[in-house]
């Protein structure tokens, strides 16, 4: 099986980008080890602190964030980093050609139940001669991403990565200590009979999503004419991985449960990198009204509604939104 660096070179990545990706993965290998140790290494449970999102930080959130932040900044390759666990950006090398924004541990509510979690990262170009301390340098649309990926800490530790030449899957070989190519080119099936949504929010959704999911639930007797299955891992990284492997549609739609926070998932370090991976694998990703990767960000922690996966199924869902008379 082929190692990561030659595959990246074949895809046109330059030495600095390869070095940056390997630095990110070096941190992820340490995170994988600590996650695998679980209760034995005293990293489970929560801290007494809250992050910028107002969420109680898990010990593993803090550990993963410190590892990634320190190793990426020490590489000298990045102008700045942004993280779900950092209130603002952290300046790096003024001559660094990259920016990295990441969710150090996505699905952290799963850490204490030994369920799927992962690290999501997005690599953007650093504007020339910019101020490394200026957060606005991150406010680039998803289409500007140079690379995007996640590391899934599951029964095996897997990497999904794209540099714009398709989406590839790698598996960590813990004997030699590197990621080996295990799926050359991911192709998401255009149609599916599997959806992923947190149904407990159903009464808070806007009308189009209510109507779309209601029709799926009617199964063969309903307008979709087939039965659907449902999955919900409560870690985007796990639900997206399933979709890359066998298709499906994932949605975390806008809900009115907390009017101050109508959307849940973060644009810069969840929705955008996942959208690049999914689109590069032939899928689609939308808010319901707009292609996610075309959103012009206004804040490094802004949230967005997400509907992504098998292209034809996403299109079916979007048709319910097109006929939504309450929207412009
Ligand atoms: P945590 O990292 O706080 O567990 O949130 C994970 C997440 O952002 C995303 O990965 C999941 O798809 C979604 O939240 C799960 O949200 P619910 O807990 O509301 O189902």
UniProtKB/TrEMBL annotation:
UniProt main location, coarse: cytoplasm
Enzyme class: hydrolase
Residues involved in Mg(2+) 2 binding: 103, 106, 270
Pathway: Carbohydrate biosynthesis
Domain (Fructose-1-6-bisphosphatase class 1 C-terminal) ranges: 189-321
Subcellular location: Cytoplasm
EC number of this enzyme: 3.1.3.11
Keyword annotations from UniProtKB, A to Z: Carbohydrate metabolism, Cytoplasm, Hydrolase, Magnesium, Metal-binding
Cofactor(s) required for function per UniProt: Mg(2+)
Binding site for Mg(2+) 1: 84, 103, 105
Stretches assigned to the Fructose-1-6-bisphosphatase class I N-terminal domain: 13-184
Binding site residues for substrate: 106-109, 198, 264
Domain of life: Bacteria
SUPFAM superfamilies associated with the record: Carbohydrate phosphatase
Cofactor note: Binds 2 magnesium ions per subunit.
MF GO annotations: fructose 1,6-bisphosphate 1-phosphatase activity
UniProt catalytic activity: beta-D-fructose 1,6-bisphosphate + H2O = beta-D-fructose 6-phosphate + phosphate
InterPro entries reported for this sequence: FBPase_C_dom (IPR044015), FBPase_class-1 (IPR000146), FBPase_N (IPR033391), FBPtase (IPR028343)
Subunit field text: Homotetramer.
HAMAP family (UniProt xref): FBPase_class1
Family (UniProt): Belongs to the FBPase class 1 family.
Name of the protein in its database record: Fructose-1,6-bisphosphatase class 1
Organism: Rheinheimera marina
Lineage of the species this protein comes from: Bacteria, Pseudomonadati, Pseudomonadota, Gammaproteobacteria, Chromatiales
């Amino acid at each position: 099986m082929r190692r990561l660096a030659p595959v990246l070179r074949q895809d046109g990545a330059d030495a600095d980008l390869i070095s940056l990706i390997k630095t990110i993965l070096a941190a992820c290998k340490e995170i994988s080890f600590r996650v695998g140790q679980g209760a034995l290494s005293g990293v489970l449970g929560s801290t007494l602190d809250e992050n910028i999102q107002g969420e109680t930080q898990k010990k593993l959130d803090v550990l993963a964030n410190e590892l990634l932040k320190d190793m990426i900044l020490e590489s000298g390759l990045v102008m700045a980093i942004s993280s779900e666990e950092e209130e603002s950006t952290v300046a790096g090398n003024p001559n660094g050609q990259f920016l990295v924004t990441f969710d150090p541990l996505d699905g952290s509510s799963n850490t204490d139940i030994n369920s799927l979690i992962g690290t999501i990262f997005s690599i953007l170009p650093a504007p020339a001669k910019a101020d490394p301390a200026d957060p606005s340098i991150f406010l680039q649309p998803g289409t500007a991403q140079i690379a995007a990926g996640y590391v899934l800490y599951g029964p095996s530790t897997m990497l999904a990565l794209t540099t714009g030449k398709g989406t590839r899957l790698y598996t960590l070989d813990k004997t030699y200590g590197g990621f080996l190519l295990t799926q050359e080119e991911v192709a998401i099936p255009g149609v599916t009979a599997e959806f992923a949504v947190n149904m407990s929010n159903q009464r808070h959704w806007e009308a189009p999503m209510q109507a779309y999911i209601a029709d799926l639930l009617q199964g063969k007797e309903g307008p979709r004419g087939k039965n659907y299955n449902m999955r919900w891992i409560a870690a985007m990284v796990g639900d997206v991985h399933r979709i890359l492997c066998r298709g499906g549609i994932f949605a975390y739609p806008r809900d009115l449960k907390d009017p101050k926070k109508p959307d849940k998932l973060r644009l810069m370090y969840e929705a955008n990198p996942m959208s690049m991976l999914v689109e590069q694998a032939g899928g689609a990703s939308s808010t319901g009204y707009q292609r996610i990767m075309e959103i012009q960000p206004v804040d490094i922690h802004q949230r967005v509604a997400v509907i992504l996966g098998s292209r034809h199924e996403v299109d079916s869902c979007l048709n319910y939104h097109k006929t939504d008379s309450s929207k412009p």
